[in-house]
Amino acid sequence: MTMFARWRRSQGPTDEATPEVPASASRAVEVRGDRLPSRDPSVFFTVRIDGVWRPCENELSQDVNLAVLARHQLREQVRRTLVFYTVLDAAAAQDAVNADITGWHSAEPGLEIRGSVRLTVEAQDKALAEEHLRQDRARSLDQQETLGRLTFLQRVMSDPDLRLVWWIDRHPDRINELRDVKTTLQDLKPPHDPSHDVLRDEVVRFVDQLLADIRTPQQREVFLRALAQTLHVLGRTELQAAAAQWLDAAAPDSGSASA
User: Fold this and answer.
1) CA geometry: angle 68, 74, 78, nearest 5 deg
2) Which of 90, 112, 188, 244 has the highest CB neighbour number within 10 Å of its CB?
C-alpha cells in the first residue's frame, strides 16, 4: 500500500458514511404556488413560504417527519392570518403574515419554526375581489337608504303634529283612520340620535338639582371644597383655580352666617 492510498483513506467520511447533523442545526422547507383563501372565501392569494425548522431539546417521536410537520404548521399559520385580508390589500396581508412568522416560535412540542412569505394575486382573483367589493358597497348603500326611510317614518309617526300633516298629505281620503293609527302608535318613541349624549344630559340635570338644593352658605362651602378636590384629582388645574376663587368669595358669607 502506497503512502498516497493511506492518506486518502484517512480523509473524512466515505460515501457510505453520513455525518450526524447537530440537533440544534436548522433545516429549510418551502411551499411554492400554494393558493390560500382570503377574507372572501372564493378569492385566493398565491403564496410562497420559505421556512426554517429545528428540533428542540425534547425532540418529537422519531416516527414524525419534522420537515413535513414544519411545512404544515407554517402553511396553517399563514392561512389563519390571510382570512382577515382581501387580495386588494395584498401588501398589508404580506406584512401581517411576516410579522407573525419571521421569529422563532414553537409550533409543536420539540419543534421550532420560522419563515417568510411572498404573496401574489392572479388577475382572475383580483377581478373577483373587485366584484365582491362593488356588491358589498351596493348592499351597504341600499341598507343605508332603507334605514334612512324607516328613521324618517319613525320620527314622523312619533310626533303627533308631524303625523297629522303627513297622514293628510299621503292619505287625504282616509282621515277617519287617523284615530286608530294614533292608538296603535301611542308607545312609539322618536328615533335615537347617536350624536346626542344622553349621559351628559343626565349629568346636567343632576348638577341643576344639586345646585337647587344648596341653600345655605355652609352647604355652598362644602360643595365647593369637594368640587375643588375632585378637579385637582382629575388634573383640571384651570377649573380647580376657578372653584378656589368661588370658595374665597363664599368664605365671608360662611363666616357671617356662623357667627
Assistant:
1) 145
2) 90
pTM: 0.53
With a pLDDT cut of 70, the percent of the chain lying above it is: 81
The residue-averaged pLDDT of 208-222 equals 80
Residues whose CB is less than 8 angstroms from the CB of residue 170 and which lie 6 or more positions away in sequence, other chains included: none
In this structure, are strands 105-108 and 27-37 parallel, antiparallel, or unpaired?
unpaired
- Strand, helix or coil for residue 67: helix
Angle among Cα 234, 235, 240 to the nearest 5 degrees reads: 95
Q: How many CA atoms lie within 13 A of 48 on its CB side?
A: 7
Helix locations, the chain, DSSP H: 3-9, 66-82, 90-101, 123-158, 160-170, 178-184, 198-213, 217-234, 237-258
> Which is higher by pLDDT, 62 or 180?
180
pLDDT surpasses 80 at 14:
no
Q: Are 55 and 111 in contact (CB under 8 A)?
A: yes
**Count of residues in the chain:** 259
Residue with cell 349624549: 197
